Amino acid sequence: MNLSLAFEPLISWPLLGLVLAPLLLLALVGLWFRQRGAVFRFAALLALTAALLNPVLLDEEREALKSVVAVVVDRSQSQDIGERTRQTDEALAGLQQRLGRFKQFDVRVVEAGKSEAAEERTETRLFGALESAFRDVPPSRIGGAIMITDGEVHDAPGGTPDFNAPLHALITGNDQEKDRRIRFENAPRFGLVGKPLEMTYRVIGTNNEAGSVDVRVSVNGEQVSVERATIGQAMPLQVTIPGAGRNIVELAIDPEPDELTDTNNRAIALIDGIRENLRVLLVSGEPHAGERTWRNLLKSDASVDLVHFTILRPPEKQDGTPINELSLIAFPTRELFVEKIKDFDLIIFDRYQHRDVLPVLYYDYIAEYVEKGGALLIAAGPEYAGESSIARTPLMSALPAMPTGEVVEKAFYPRLTELGQRHPVTRGLDGSATEPPHWSRWFRTIGVENPGGEAVMKGADNRPLLLLDRKGEGRVGMFLSDQGWLWARGFEGGGPHVQLYRRIAHWLMKEPELEEERLTADGRGMMLEIRRQTMSDDPGPAQIITPSGKAMTVKLERAEPGVFLGSIETSEIGLYQVGNGDLKALAHVGPVNAPEFTDVVSTENRLRAPAEATGGSVRRLAQSSTLGNLAGGVTLPSVVPVRSTGAAAGNDWIGLRTTDDSVLKAVSRVPLFGGFLGLGLLLLALGSMWYREGR
């Protein structure tokens, strides 16, 4: 029963004051001067006032509200280690049983660490889950929170949490755990291809472990060295980035006996390899419209350093001009083709013919340069079919096709061959999907015989137009027409000359993305995506090895000519090995070196400060004294309801606060000065006053 008194005036408060104030003043004056009947007049005034105020006695029926208690269960991957999952399940069942005995508690169980987002699965964010559990609860109704976790919480506040209630932590695992891990201290995101890259790393042991261990260093899955590292100290590391694009540097150490997990015995660094500016030598046999197309394209590429020479005055041209009046520089043939030929990534001969500008021996140097890994492109014109063709020099050993001497002057649309539709250099060229192709015609093709390599484009009468070939460790391309400039000039709408020329140049310079046979894999969220470039019709399935060593198979589906894709949803975070035929690739799923695996030793330290700040406690479910009998269960503290001002933790118990909040269900009203009782009292007072005044 909750009794209270309320007033419900019959008239408004201002009008009530206007009526009663003069009467009260007269009654007080009468009392002051002790006039006869003043007391009766004052009593009558009080009765009138009570009647006008209309006092009401209220009896409220209320229902007490429950305190909300959150039980936050850590289901992150570090909880799968050892006996932690069993301890967690037993502790949760025991707590639910104990809390179920108290009707004043509304228990909410929240599981954290099983989100589908990779970024959330790699961190244990229990306080975020706790905030969500209390989002719709007033602060006065929060009874407390209990966390079942290994203590590796990554969003723990440094001070008091945002709720005024006890926070208790029950720690899984045991206090005798040991683990050894490795991590990168400094790992740049970018590195120059072929240049040493400075990095640092650290091997960390449990309880200030000392000593040294062997560290295996692998780049893109291939072991490159074994380093000796002192445990606990930052160690220097120098690696060489082998190629452009994504590179994976991996450090690995052997697990020690009785170690918790070997998941963190590896550390990964993803480094994007960047090539230094590519050096290209362009030698034009004579000025012509196509020369400027090549020059403008290469000059517009910020990653290319271009050296360009045009032969304007061949040796046989003798017009008597004095040497000192010539504005042209001498062609530094020896410097370019002997001393510094290895410095070039690509040599282009654009409509070049042998005119004794280059000694015959130098062509042999160029062929040797290709054999040892260099790149050569022949942009052929009518000169290639003539008597002075460079095909009649020692360079012929590096060329994919010999000229027939025929120059076909005939309009045609350049078309992709069947191989060209799958080859990454020509696949998907803008305008190639229609018939005829959506680009302009050309009018000249150079005839060749016995073409080698791969013919990816064809010209008039289905003759080879673009040949791509490998010679030794190097590559050679041959463009059998000099009219690509028609596309650049916009003739009949032009064509994709920039796209085509740039792909040819970068394929010759071994750009990884333009390899015919290439396998790549990438992690997006918790999805592993596989891409296979191939010239075959069916590459077969891809084999996958997960971070834990499990083997899986993924079918690759054709996405477009020469491209097959596959994907699989994963549950593990870490480095995956993907294979298809002779090709292998590595991919990391989830954030690199995720905090969830950085430190897996259970600890009480991370939650001690926020727990003690709220009056709560941190304790282990299994103490070292019970390690030999872990199968017998965990040790749970008793649960005790406490008032907001009382202690919330003891040696073997934890307290949860009860709330004083309630909800109103019904109200009973009893007017105190209403009905016949009020009327009788009012008449009695007025009658007494009249009687006294009449004496």
Please name the defining characteristics of this protein.
transmembrane helix; membrane; 5 domains; Immunoglobulin-like; 695 residues; single chain; five-stranded parallel beta sheet; Glutamine amidotransferase domain-containing protein; eight-stranded mixed beta sheet; alpha/beta
Describe this structure in words.
This is Glutamine amidotransferase domain-containing protein. There is one protein chain. This protein is α/β, with parallel strands linked by helices and 695 residues long. It has an eight-stranded mixed β-sheet. A five-stranded parallel β-sheet has the order 4-3-5-6-33, with helices on both faces. Strands 8-14-13-10-11 form a five-stranded mixed β-sheet, with no helix packed on it. The two termini are 48 Å apart.
